[in-house]
Amino acid sequence: MTCILVPVYLDTNTFTFAQIAVTQSISGTGALRIGGAFLARHYPHSKTIYVPSPTWGNHIPLFKDSGLEVKFYRYFDKKTVGLDFAGLKEDLTVQQIPFTFCAIF
């Protein structure tokens, strides 16, 4: 299984393939732990990571153990039992979250 950390930009013209980091992992949980440690150690812009609400129970302790502050963005709409696309877009706008954020999708 491969974990790929990709910066998310609203303007894709600012994205270059030199900004992709790839590491090998034997599991999804291991990939998250490696990714969290990498971001905490090498990403100078932010020590905050945004995860969907709700998220898997292991996401929060993994990222906190890596030294990251965990915040949430809307993802699930209980009324439709589907994606809360409007909430997701609103939460992940530059006005709500700094431009240098990292998020797990």
Quick take:
This protein is α/β, with parallel strands linked by helices and 105 residues long. 28% of the residues lie in helices and 25% in strands.
How would you summarize the topology of this molecule?
Blueprint: E1 2-5, E2 21-24, H1 28-42, E3 48-53, H2 59-65, E4 69-74, E5 76-77, E6 82-83, H3 85-91, E7 102-103
Parallel strand pairs: 3-4, 3-7
Antiparallel strand pairs: 1-2, 5-6
Helix pairs in contact: 1-2
What keyword list fits this structure?
three-stranded parallel sheet, disordered N terminus, Aspartate Aminotransferase, domain 2, 105 residues, alpha/beta, 7 strands, 25% strand
Q: Could you please describe the fold and organization of this structure?
A:
With 105 residues, this protein is α/β, with parallel strands linked by helices. It has a single domain, classed as Type I PLP-dependent aspartate aminotransferase-like (Major domain) (Aspartate Aminotransferase, domain 2, 3-Layer(aba) Sandwich). Helix content is 28%, strand content 25%. It is built from three helices and seven strands, in the order E-E-H-E-H-E-E-E-H-E. It has helices at residues 28-42, 59-65, 85-91; strands at 2-5, 21-24, 48-53, 69-74, 76-77, 82-83, 102-103. A three-stranded parallel β-sheet has the order 4-3-7. A two-stranded antiparallel sheet has the order 1-2. Strands 5-6 form a two-stranded antiparallel ribbon. Helix 2 (59-65) links the parallel strand 3 (48-53) and strand 4. The longest helix is centred in the middle third of the chain and has 15 residues, at 28-42. The radius of gyration is 14 Å and the shape is globular. Residues 1-10 have low confidence and may be disordered.
